């Protein structure tokens, strides 16, 4: 069953939880990627690598506007065209205009979260262009008309038999579940698209400010294809995707690969510093770079700048017990998992647009331990909850409940009396239903819907302690 | 105010807020002396070559280590012949032999530093395709079904089994990308222990910045094109070459 990403949050979660295929596929993949990451980071000085990448990225954000200007200067000097986009509409219009001006009716795309964020495919298709995703996973979900459900493994939620069905239905593939045959078919189909496309679009894993170089990282080679074969190449990058020097880029590349898939390096890191020059055999004649804000400057001003360190490796998703259960679509935004639960509300004009996400966490801290730049995600999630309360976005009943709890905890007499009543009441009720409480009225039924509730102890700790002290005193 | 100026001024205003929790007000860049080398490799050039081979094998590539340029020349020819036979055997049809089977997409062969290679390849029957403009529809069509490509490298890193290919002048990016098989020729003089070593040498020589800019495109390649998108099943040759074979030879003795 497919999760309806437009459904309310609780419905999305219920849909995800009731899909056994999804849970098997997601758990299997996240376990595999987590084990690969642990082995890869353990094989080198992983903690030092994390510390150094964080330090480098902190420095970038401290000097953010200066590095952006340096990047712009160097890109322009290299012959690239730089565009600035404040929001989704700006970015869509820029890319659409480039395509239309160059009569690029077919656009091939490499996997990119930034272009998902601006809903680029939809905008280009509305302008009458054909857009083809070329990452194998993205190609599958484009055929299935679904959004990606993981930052680096977009089709993580689908099992092989489900993918085979999509290929049979959409590509007329003869029935088979052989991955090699399915890959060969995709290669052949997509090769035609690469050769015919007028424009290639990708995201940007990082851009080197000192040289004006756009770097994209892939395992399949589609990133090289989209940045080499068509006449026009467009890279859409979030403005935080900066590194100062080439050496910093190589350091971050290694942290990214080890954290994302456990590889020392991915198969391809393609570094584009400008358009084709006279005498070059291939390469794009035009290189455009779209620098996308879309809430990032607001995110910094709101105090969530630490999340801008994110290098989009997906390690926090793989480590998260909540993500492992519900997969990516239940989060409802472009970004999912723990980092998505921070980024989606922090990027949005109103945090309350994603008010459920800061609660979609167990706050266990596994994400913080996995993060290659040590982002303190649990703290940021708590900060978001706090901001939601400040903004009055939390339910009134919750605010009332917390107030009552605070006054209860301030009065020893009230606390003990209530404890006594709860003990008597819960034991009576449990006695009637055979030892444990199997049902409670709303809002407590959320607990008993999934598990029994044990009755309170007949005697509180305080009572027991008082009695024990008395008995010792008597002796 | 332009969009650019609005974004930059927003960032500057935010960074000037007195109680901004992040980033720290003063944060130093990583210096060249403190920046770590992630993976280390010890030993002489042959030890490094063996490490390169080991790492490339681990990422679905293969490798030969040769002592002389003469061996390298023979090895290139026999590898291409082996691939040709494999292709024709796999086809199993009446038209098992097609003229385009002999096509090889390559960079100018003088760059491979193997004297006499073009001559011997042509004598054996291979047709060396060296396009001049791949936006020309005719030339593009000519390379579409070429099954093998030969390139050399800008540099290779023993620690990860990686190599760097450029895309400037007559060196087609396509040669290491569109064919099903990629034969990469690596003289020992371009083999470095680590990527960090290569960058340090380039930086020290004052060439790094200009080199990157003038290259237009550089790719670091580590093994065969692959994907695990089909429920974790590893498949190779998704878009780039399925077969990557490196021939390393000792040119330092000469």
Outline the structure in words.
The complex is a heterodimer of chains A (475) and B (254). By secondary structure, chain A is α/β, with parallel strands linked by helices. Chain A has 22 helices and ten strands. Chain A has helices spanning 9-17, 20-42, 46-62, 64-77, 88-101, 113-117, 120-126, 136-143, 160-171, 179-196, 222-228, 246-260, 296-301, 315-319, 321-326, 337-347, 366-370, 377-390, 396-410, 412-432, 445-448, 461-474, and strands at residues 81-85, 106-109, 130-133, 199-202, 206-208, 213-218, 232-238, 242-243, 268-272, 286-292. In chain A, strands 1-10-7-4-2-3 form a six-stranded parallel beta sheet, sandwiched between helices. In chain A, a hairpin with a 4-residue loop joins strand 5 (206-208) and strand 6. Chain A is elongated, with a radius of gyration of 26 Å. With 254 residues, chain B is an alpha/beta fold. Chain B has a domain at 43-91 and 101-225: Rossmann fold (3-Layer(aba) Sandwich). Chain B is 33% helix and 21% strand. Chain B is built from seven helices and twelve strands. Chain B has helices at residues 3-15, 45-58, 69-91, 117-124, 137-143, 195-204, 208-215, and strands spanning 62-66, 103-106, 127-129, 148-151, 155-157, 162-166, 181-187, 191-192, 217-221, 226-230, 233-236, 243-249. At the A-B interface, helix 2, helix 3, helix 4, helix 8 and helix 10 of A face helix 1, helix 6, helix 7, strand 9 and strand 10 of B.
Strand and helix map with partners:
The complex is a heterodimer of chains A (475) and B (254).
Chain A: H1 9-17, H2 20-42, H3 46-62, H4 64-77, E1 81-85, H5 88-101, E2 106-109, H6 113-117, H7 120-126, E3 130-133, H8 136-143, H9 160-171, H10 179-196, E4 199-202, E5 206-208, E6 213-218, H11 222-228, E7 232-238, E8 242-243, H12 246-260, E9 268-272, E10 286-292, H13 296-301, H14 315-319, H15 321-326, H16 337-347, H17 366-370, H18 377-390, H19 396-410, H20 412-432, H21 445-448, H22 461-474
Parallel strand pairs in A: 1-10, 2-3, 2-4, 4-7, 5-8, 7-10
Antiparallel strand pairs in A: 5-6, 6-9
Chain B: H1 3-15, H2 45-58, E1 62-66, H3 69-91, E2 103-106, H4 117-124, E3 127-129, H5 137-143, E4 148-151, E5 155-157, E6 162-166, E7 181-187, E8 191-192, H6 195-204, H7 208-215, E9 217-221, E10 226-230, E11 233-236, E12 243-249
Parallel strand pairs in B: 1-12, 2-3, 2-4, 4-7, 5-8, 7-12
Antiparallel strand pairs in B: 5-6, 6-9, 10-11
């Amino acid at each position: 069953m497919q999760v309806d990403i437009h459904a309310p949050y609780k419905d999305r979660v219920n849909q995800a939880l009731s899909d056994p295929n999804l849970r098997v596929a997601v758990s299997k993949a996240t376990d595999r990627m987590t084990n690969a990451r642990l082995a890869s980071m353990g094989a080198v000085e992983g903690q030092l690598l994390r510390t150094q990448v964080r330090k480098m990225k902190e420095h970038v954000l401290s000097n953010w506007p200066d590095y952006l200007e340096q990047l712009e200067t160097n890109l322009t000097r290299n012959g690239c065209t730089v565009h600035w986009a404040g929001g989704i509409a700006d970015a869509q219009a820029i890319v659409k205009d480039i395509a239309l001006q160059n009569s690029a009716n077919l656009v091939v795309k490499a996997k990119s979260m930034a272009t998902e964020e601006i809903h680029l495919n939809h905008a280009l298709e509305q302008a009458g262009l054909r857009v083809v995703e070329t990452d194998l996973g993205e190609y599958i979900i484009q055929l299935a008309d679904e959004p990606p459900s993981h930052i680096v493994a977009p089709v993580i939620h689908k099992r092989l038999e489900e993918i085979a069905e999509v290929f049979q239905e959409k590509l007329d593939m003869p029935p088979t579940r052989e991955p090699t045959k399915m890959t060969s078919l995709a290669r052949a189909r997509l090769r035609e698209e690469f050769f015919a496309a007028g424009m290639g679009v990708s995201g940007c894993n990082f851009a080197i400010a000192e040289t004006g170089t756009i770097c994209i990282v892939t395992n399949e080679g589609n990133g090289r294809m989209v940045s080499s074969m068509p006449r026009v190449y467009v890279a859409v990058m979030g403005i935080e995707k900066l590194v100062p020097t080439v050496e910093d880029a190589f350091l971050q590349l290694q942290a990214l690969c080890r954290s994302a898939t456990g590889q020392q390096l991915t198969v391809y890191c393609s570094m584009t510093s400008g358009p084709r020059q006279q005498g070059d055999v291939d390469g794009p004649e035009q290189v455009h770079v779209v620098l996308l804000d879309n809430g990032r400057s607001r995110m910094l001003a709101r105090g969530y700048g630490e999340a801008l360190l994110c290098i989009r490796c997906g390690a926090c998703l793989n480590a998260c017990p909540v993500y492992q259960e519900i997969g990516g679509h239940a989060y409802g935004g472009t970004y999912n998992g723990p980092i998505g639960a921070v980024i989606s509300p922090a990027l949005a004009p109103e945090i309350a647009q994603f008010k459920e996400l800061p609660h979609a966490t167990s706050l266990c801290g596994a994400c913080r331990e996995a993060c290659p730049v040590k982002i303190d995600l649990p703290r940021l999630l708590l900060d978001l909850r706090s901001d939601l309360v400040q903004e009055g976005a939390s339910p009134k009943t919750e605010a009332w409940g917390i107030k009552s709890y605070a006054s209860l905890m301030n009065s020893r007499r009230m606390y003990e009396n209530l404890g006594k009543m709860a003990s008597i009441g819960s034991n009576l009720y449990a006695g009637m239903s055979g030892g444990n409480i199997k049902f409670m009225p709303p809002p407590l039924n959320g607990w008993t819907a999934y598990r029994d509730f044990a009755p309170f102890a007949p005697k509180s700790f305080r009572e027991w302690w008082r009695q024990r002290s008395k008995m010792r005193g008597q002796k | 105010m332009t969009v650019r100026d609005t974004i930059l001024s927003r960032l500057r205003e935010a960074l000037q807020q007195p109680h901004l929790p992040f980033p720290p007000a003063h944060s130093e860049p990583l210096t060249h002396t403190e920046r770590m080398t992630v993976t280390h490799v010890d030993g002489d050039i042959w030890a490094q070559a063996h490490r390169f081979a080991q790492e490339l094998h681990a990422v679905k590539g293969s490798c030969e280590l040769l002592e002389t340029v003469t061996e390298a020349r023979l090895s290139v020819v026999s590898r291409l012949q082996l691939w040709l036979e494999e292709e024709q055997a796999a086809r199993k049809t009446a038209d098992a032999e097609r003229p385009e089977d002999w096509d090889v997409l390559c960079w100018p062969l003088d760059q491979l530093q193997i004297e006499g290679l073009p001559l011997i390849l042509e004598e054996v029957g291979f047709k060396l395709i060296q396009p001049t403009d791949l936006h020309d529809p005719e030339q593009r069509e000519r390379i579409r079904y070429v099954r093998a490509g030969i390139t050399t490298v800008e540099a290779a890193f023993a620690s990860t089994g990686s190599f760097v290919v450029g895309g400037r002048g007559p060196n087609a990016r396509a040669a290491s990308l569109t064919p099903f098989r990629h034969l990469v020729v690596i003289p020992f003089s371009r083999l470095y222990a680590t990527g960090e070593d290569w960058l340090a040498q380039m930086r020290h020589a004052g060439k790094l910045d200009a080199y990157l800019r003038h290259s237009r495109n550089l790719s670091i390649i580590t093994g065969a094109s692959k994907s695990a998108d089909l429920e974790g099943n590893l498949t190779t040759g998704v878009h780039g070459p399925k077969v990557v074979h490196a021939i390393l030879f000792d040119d330092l003795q000469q």
